[in-house]
Design goal:
Elements (H helix, E strand, L loop, with lengths): L1 H34 L8 H27 L1 H8 L1 H29 E3 L9 E3 L5 H26 L11 H20 L7 E6 L4 E2 L7 E6 L9 E8 L6 H18 L11 E2 L1 H11 L5 E8 L11 E8 L1
């Protein structure tokens, strides 16, 4: 607040000084014109011009001097700006270098990325009693901890010591089950089995403790065998380029996620059958006309399918 008041005071002071000088210049110019005074032997009209110009210069000089006297920032801007800019550029370069070094160091230490599966999934039959569901889910939790600890030892992470027999852990598992059942019932999947997949909740770095959370998906049929997942329109007689391939991959990924395929299963090794894709693109180079490059499910596709492959075929439009 004090800084704001000092700035306002400086502006007012500059305004008053500039107004005073302008008034004096006006009065001097008026007297010069009325009395037809001359300066350096010049004609009166030229003398008036000189007075007006001098007044403007005096206003600019006075404003500058007042600003310099009244503000440290103005003095810095006038006399040390280039030096400050050089320091700023140097500091920004150092900060960027340090950030890159930090990112490189941390990225090289990432041993398990956020969202990566920690262990295999487990499908809960929601038509069973809650006691039966909890029995199976608790066994699955303990199996996941054991599997995660094997992974932790291999990756340089600390082990997880939680057990389903711990009252707090058991209460958390029961909450997970109930919230998942209620969520899928609310969207029309009341009697559909639920796939629980243990995934890393965040990037895990070497020497950190391994941990996981559960992602939940309704384990219903997503695609029947041979059902179209996505397609792109292509022209015969030309090779498929990288943008075409990326577009097909993007459309297939979006369609799979929309249907309910777990995101952790969408990366490699899941994806297009390389042999089928190469055969379809080679066929396209030998034909003429308008076609569709179609990605289709190979076999029935459920969330619990895990790693999957999509066939690619060339079809006329």
């Amino acid at each position: 607040m004090r800084t704001d008041l000092s700035g306002i005071g400086l502006v007012l002071l500059i305004t008053i000084v500039a107004g005073g000088i302008a008034y004096i210049g006006d009065r001097v110019g008026h007297q010069v014109g009325r009395k037809r005074l001359t300066l350096f032997g010049l004609r009166p009209k030229y003398t008036s011009t000189i007075v007006a110009v001098a007044t403007g210069m005096l206003i600019a000089l006075s404003v500058t001097l007042v600003a310099l006297v009244g503000s440290q920032q103005v003095r810095t801007a006038f006399f040390r700006l280039s030096q400050l800019n050089a320091q700023i550029n140097q500091l920004q370069a150092q900060a960027a270098e340090q950030q890159n070094e930090l990112n490189t160091t941390r990225n090289s230490s990432i041993v398990l990325e956020r969202g990566a599966p920690v262990a295999v999934g487990y499908v809960v039959d929601v038509t069973q009693s809650e006691a039966q569901q909890m029995k199976g889910f608790s066994t699955f939790f303990d199996d996941t901890v054991r599997s995660a600890n094997v992974t932790a030892e291999r990756l340089g992470l600390l082990p997880d010591n939680k057990r389903s027999s711990d009252p707090d852990v058991r209460a958390g598992l029961l909450t997970e089950l109930r919230e998942a059942r209620e969520h899928f019932a609310s969207i029309g999947d009341a009697n559909v089995p639920i796939l629980f997949l243990p995934i890393a909740p965040n990037n895990l770095f070497r020497d950190e403790r391994i941990t996981f959370t559960f992602g939940a998906w309704a384990d219903r049929l997503l695609y029947t065998n041979g059902e179209e997942v996505a397609h792109i329109d292509v022209e015969g007689g030309r090779p498929i380029g990288a943008p075409d391939y990326r577009l097909l991959v993007t459309r297939a990924t979006e369609a799979l996620v929309k249907r309910g395929m777990p995101v952790p299963f969408l990366g490699p090794p899941s994806g297009f059958d390389p042999a089928r894709f190469e055969a379809a693109t080679s066929q396209l180079a030998r034909v003429r006309g308008r076609f569709r490059l179609v990605a289709r499910s190979e076999g029935p596709l459920y969330p619990h399918t895990g790693i999957f492959s999509l066939a690619v075929s060339l079809e006329p439009r």
